[in-house]
Amino acid sequence: MVIVDVEDPIPDIDCRHPVAERYKGVWVLAVRGDSPLGLIDVPVSGPVLRGPELASLLRGQFGEDWNPPARTDCERRALPSMAVVVPTNLGRPAQLRACVESLRRLDYPDFEIVVVDNRHEPAPAHDLLESMATWPRVRIVRERRPGISAARNRGVEATAADVVAFTDDDVRVHPGWLLALGRRFACEPQLDAVTGLVLPEELETQAQLLFEQSGNALDRGYRPVTFRLASLSGPWWQRLMSMPNIERHEAGAATTAFPLYATGELGIGSNMAFRTGALRALGGFDYALGVGTATCGGEDLAMLLELLLSGRLLGYEPSAIVHHTHRRTLEELEVQLRGYGVGFSAMMLSLLLRDHRRIRGFAAAVPHGVRAMTKPDSTKRSRRGEEYPKELARAELRGMLQGPTAYIRERRVRHPLG
What we know:
12 helices, Spore Coat Polysaccharide Biosynthesis Protein SpsA, Chain A, globular, alpha/beta, single chain, 2 domains, eleven-stranded mixed beta sheet
């Protein structure tokens, strides 16, 4: 995975593999200044992909107009203060170090990094955390309740920043990540949350390639988008039975709508930011959802959807880029996809229990969601080739069946401690 700025001379790409003879292909993200143009998959036939050859491919894909977009007046407005919250259980210390080191290189005037130690009690001292506590801009806080939701809520409690951004300890952020998020909040004060572009850190193993085919990676777009809850029309009884839809607004394009369950465009927890006041007004993340609990996930989408269902606006900003390290083995991937299934159906139940008036609209969404998971031509399954393992698809479906029970079990035990 390489990023190429088309404003600069296109470099040669070294395609030699450290173990095999060479890579079979390379993903190239073309950017223009700090604005992504798009992603292309280039087959590799030799040890080096020559710059002129790559330039020709990029021009064929994106055209000749590579002039940088002009800065608008709103991008010169005062940027909000920001806190970056990184929950961790110290299970990946090398990746955590790389994550926080990338955060320290961010180009942003007013920010802090809050690392939340979410290990169970008793948790002994850890050399990495003790070292990080001495780094500029970095603070370490503890949260003894298990689960990423508890850790994220603790990070929000610990900061007075205007905006709280979240990422994970297996992520490396682009140097302009926080600036892209901050500018979007400054330019559009009506937005209460912004998500960004998530790219793979590496595509070295079969499992990492299969994750990209699974339908669980973020639907990558390369233009700024705004999402809102679609207005329902018709008599009240018709509106009551209608499935909630989300409207997608992109400058220069027609407004489109998609069902509530089709969440792939909204964003994911490794790259999202909220106005602190809005996050607190919504009650924070659901303690019964997320990695570290029986529900395995869903807390990020639950919060994004709750924000939209409350009438607030969500932005997607493609120039806010992070790189995520996918699971390297098939065994790890199968566990992850099962967890995604558990988290998704648990998340839907969580939203329903927050407001029982949603029951009819959510019930209308269930058949559509099932078809999206099972129909070969659905958007969810459109990336899966014939070689996609059936056991991975079955694992995710089994997880979805287990999600509601897992959520109810967690609700009985996951309560804020007094």
